[in-house]
Write a structure and sequence with these properties.
Length: about 500
Amino acid sequence: MMGREDWAGLASRLDIASGLFIEGQYVNARSGKTFDCLNPATDQIIAKVAQGDVADIDLAVASAQAALRDGRWRSLAPRTRASILLRLADLVEVHTQELALLETLDMGKPISDVLNIDIPEVVNTLRYFAECIDKIEGGVTATPVGTLHTITHEPLGVVGAITPWNYPLMMAVWKLAPALAAGNCVVLKPAEQAPLSCTRLAQLFVDAGGPPGVFNVVNGLGPEAGKALALHPDVAKLTFTGSTAVGKLLLGYAGQSNMKRVALETGGKSPQILMPDLYDLDAAVDRAVGGIFDNAGQVCNAGSRLLVHQSLHDEFVQRFIARAQQAYQTGDPLDPATTLGPMVSQTQRQNVQARIDQAISDGAKPVLGGLSPDTQGAGAYLQPCVFTGADNTMRIVREEVFGPVATVQAFETEEQALAMANDSDYGLAASVWTADLKTAHRMVGALQAGVVWVNCFGDGDMTQPFGGYKQSGNSRDKHKDSLLSYMQTKSAWFQLG
Ligand code: NAD
């Protein structure tokens, strides 16, 4: 097995492509500008990345439009498109080490997480949607003799994708795979905090036989390149994963431009409810800890609100802290033994620390971390933090933190637990721990969340539609239905008589 030294050796020899990827090749930004890409574990610059803006978005959209018009992708036989996406999945596997290094150096995620979670999920997503391509069927409806009515599904056109930094490649592929499978051409604007792996994927698409211009990547800042993509009149659909605040802006940009479709996967504040009859407290503690501290809490569905029956509360807090201390040790993310990397940036670390400080001044009690942040030395590291004594009026309970910070609140009755869980602007995910099937079924029905886990947390596969209720978004990634969301139906009524 490879150790830290092996990964560090590979990292030192890594050839990092820093251009935009338009019309099948790396190019500089029209303005010639670049931005610094930092390794958050060391605060060192790892690349100077081309900084695209309106002009580059225009170029990339024009390239995608041209590819759309001449049919170089959408007119290929479905099996041919499928085989190109399957080859791309194979190439991702072949380049696992390189892509994992890019992800770890760029956003600080522990290398073992990238190898065990991100890359396999990227490969599965590409294969799943490739396999769906020739399973899309239209319809013929019942009509009078002498007429024929067909319903067919067609690609939308140019899809703009704007993605976040917490699972850079995986979040992008959740969108790219169905958009490309459906026959669209894509312009992707990855998060500026972690853009490197997505640009490399675009090159791999061409290596797999994908025609130039079908999948373009424009790196750049959100309010410049992202906004230009969202306002572009030739973009038919915008698919977004990121914060609720930016999601709301995008809805406005669509209204100001061409009324493009806007699919949003946004923030979360997911409750994990532990009922008094749960059958294995250690299992619940183990999964609850992972639910909030994996990926340093930088997870949209992070189970940040622990709602624990009062009969279990004190015992739970004790075991939760012990398990968090044992399981999550900060370290060099290139070390396969590291379980807690840095936050994505010093800015994000400071944002999270400010939320912690606010919670303390609001009266919440830190029972793990919080009081003495480790701000010494390089790297955007932050220790896990757990609060008790918080209530639903406090910002730490209401607002998304996007860091390793949990609150534990006690409840007395099921009704109270559900009321606390649903008292949120968000509705991405929730979990319930109970030994009683009837309780589980009742609570799943009452929880306002797009995804509910029973006696587990974070489980799922490609068949699971992923997305939220309320201000957590308006669409679903994964599952074959998401493929149809990148298509439009055409009704054709034939008068045959
Ligand atoms: P963010 O909203 O700040 O940025 C997301 C993307 O939007 C980036 O590419 C950014 O450059 C771009 N952007 C920023 N301002 C823009 C603008 N004015 N116009 C167009 N684009 C703009 O979010 P983030 O900090 O990168 O990611 C964290 C957020 O993402 C959290 O809120 C998290 O919950 C959410 N998220 C949601 C899911 C989900 O599936 N629901 C998954 C992962 C992350």
